[in-house]
Amino acid sequence: MADEAQKQLRAYVEYFRDLGVYDFYRRGEPGTLAWPAAEVAAVEEPVFAAPVAAAGPAPVASEPRKIVAAPVLVESVGVGLAGKLVSFDDLAPRPESRIAPEHRAAALKAIQDEIGDCTRCPLAYAGRRKIVFADGDPAARLMFVGEGPGADEDETGVPFVGKAGQLLNNMIQAMGLKREEVYIANIVKCRPPANRVPEPVEANTCSQFLLRQIDVVQPQVIVALGATAATYLLGVKQSLASLRGSWHSCRGAKLAVTYHPAFLLRDPRQKGEAWKDLQRVMAELGLKAPAKG
Ligand code: URA
């Protein structure tokens, strides 16, 4: 698209976003026409009878007519309702069959192709360079979900390659695994400007793809890294403290919540706590920490 047209489109997107109008980013089932009472503006307007000849009697007001606001299009599906939290389990039914491990790479590629050069949410117009799909083994038993790409990921198109990524690599290694043996993805696939937390409309719009990635990979365990991942995967807004330490479920996988590596870089004293979380995951997967050498 020409530069000028793109700038203009971005200006419109930002303008509507400031107004809180997100609806045209939504995708999904065709909406239903709702006609909520609140939307009906009962404006009383006198309506005059048909014009009469100049010499005739003065026009007489007929019954007042109700003018109603245009109906609003409301989606029938949970996906994309800005601000509404829905767990991944409640977003869509789980597939009835598993994709064979040898077909999972192709299935993931099909999802990536469908995403294309995505413009479904405002992040497409917020300076994104690369869409960060995922990294790792399409048949992994363990999946990590972070928040969204940072500058390094935006540059390379690969999740968790910056400083937080190096710490995540170390965490994976300490669990006795290689990075290539796990699957790594994020709640949103495009970098939020200045690394801000993704807006609900961005997370909800992107969720449909992460959900399908999870359904293809079908990991045994998912680790939600930080509050944003936990919030959207589980559909609850609770403190990390209250979510850590117990098993949750997500798309047939057991889900554990732990600190985001970026948080651990800021507060390394919490690494011991995160290690406890990862040890529970290791026990579940029958993994042993490698001997120190
Ligand atoms: N932080 C995230 O949540 N995801 C990344 O990919 C990188 C940093």
Keywords:
binds uracil; 10 helices; single chain; 13% strand; Uracil-DNA Glycosylase, subunit E; alpha/beta; 293 residues
Write a concise synopsis of the structure shown.
With 293 residues, the protein is α/β, with parallel strands linked by helices. It has helices at residues 3-18, 88-91, 104-115, 151-156, 163-174, 200-217, 226-234, 240-243, 261-266, 271-285, and strands at residues 32-34, 43-45, 65-67, 72-74, 135-136, 142-146, 183-186, 221-225, 248-250, 253-258. The chain is built from ten helices and ten strands.
Number of strands: 10
Number of helices: 10
Average pLDDT works out at: 81
CATH architecture: 3-Layer(aba) Sandwich
Order of SSEs: HEEEEHHEEHHEHEHHEEHH
CATH fold-level assignment: Uracil-DNA Glycosylase, subunit E
Domain module count: 1
Task: Outline the structure in words.
- The chain is globular and about 60 Å long.
- It has a 6-stranded mixed β-sheet, with helices on both faces. Strands 1-4 form a two-stranded antiparallel ribbon. The chain has a two-stranded antiparallel ribbon with strand order 2-3.
- The protein has helices at residues 3-18, 88-91, 104-115, 151-156, 163-174, 200-217, 226-234, 240-243, 261-266, 271-285, and strands at 32-34, 43-45, 65-67, 72-74, 135-136, 142-146, 183-186, 221-225, 248-250, 253-258.
- It has one domain (49-285): 3-Layer(aba) Sandwich (Uracil-DNA Glycosylase, subunit E), CATH 3.40.470.10.
- Helices cover 35% and strands 13% of the residues.
- The chain is an alpha/beta fold.
- Residues 146-150, 153, 159-160, 162, 164-165, 186, 262 line the site of uracil.
